Amino acid sequence: MYVWLLGAVAVLAALGFSYVIGHPEGIIDGEHDGDVRSLVSSFSNQMDAVSLLAPDAAETIRTVYTPYVAASLIEEWAANPSSAPGRLTSSPSPDHIEIESVTKTGTGIYEVTGFVVLTSSAGDAGRVPVSLTVETIEGRLLVTRYNEEGRGTPPAAPADVTLSIGEQTEALGISLRPTKLLEDSRCPLDVECIQAGTVRIEAEMVDGMGTSTNAFTLNTPVTAETRTITLTNVMPLPHSKETPLESDYRFTFHIEHR
Question: Domain ends where: 126, 148, 170?
């Protein structure tokens, strides 16, 4: 019995040693597929921490990416931060890489394809195709190539939304809610006026920069971080014999990328 047990232990030890030699990262995956996926996942979780337009972008790139990226590639990015993965604005920002495939192309070399998942305060903001090369360098798996197909998804088409006081909606990553009618000095339909007048309202806006309260004037654009919002129409039209209630008003906003 003891001899049999000792023999079994010896066999298991030999198998374990053989596995460790063939899998330096210690993950049971056959061809390091799990190791590569783990590296890319950890790397991509850091992308939101790198602001590419910040004055200290080069230093941040070196600090954040060193555990995951080959030194030569890090120095390329540090010399030209706009070529590095990271965020150009606070919204949308890269959340993680969704891996589609891992292919071994040589000894210790792997090609990875997938998508950079973008997010904003309103949720999912699109996906960008990406490919990476991961290589074994001095016993470590490191990213040696990174290529995004463009810096972002094509801008979404402009959107028009119509809201009443207190009503809220989201479009192009921005949430809007009219909160107060400040002025309606438009000339009534049945009166001849020297001045046309205007409409001003107060609205709450939520974008990548947070929540803000803004005054919107009819046909005057208001710029958010990456969008332009314009109050383009207000109904009902004024009439000298009828004064609409605030709850009767409907405000149409035009939202577009800038």
Answer: 148
